[in-house]
Design brief:
The protein has 95 residues and is mostly helical. It has a domain of 63 residues. The chain has 2 helices and 2 strands; from the N terminus they run βααβ.
Length: 95
């Protein structure tokens, strides 16, 4: 058995940011179409509908990525502190 004793906080933060950003992009695309259709039905102002829908498409992945970065960094920090108290995380690899 090998043990993971430490995660690099910045490394985990970057991976989490990319992962959350991609999930945010998927969610943003879905929200884009839902918002666009609902705004087009509710109003006759096509410009506002497109601006609102595009804002969601752009902002959601950025916000999700930022949240992923912060939570990844904090998670690595907490993990590193916890391993000092209880030891590392045991991982078994297949040869």
């Amino acid at each position: 058995m090998k043990k993971v004793k430490r995660f690099g906080p910045m490394s985990l933060a970057k991976i989490s940011a990319v992962t959350y950003g991609l999930l945010g992009l998927i969610g943003g695309v879905i929200m884009f179409f839902v918002l666009l259709v609902s705004m087009l039905v509710a109003t006759e102002d096509m410009g506002a509908a497109w601006i609102g829908a595009l804002a969601v498409l752009i902002l959601v992945p950025i916000i999700y990525g930022a949240i992923g970065f912060v939570t990844g960094y904090i998670s690595a920090w907490i993990f590193n502190k916890a391993t000092k108290w209880v030891g590392g995380l045991e991982v078994e690899f297949e040869d």
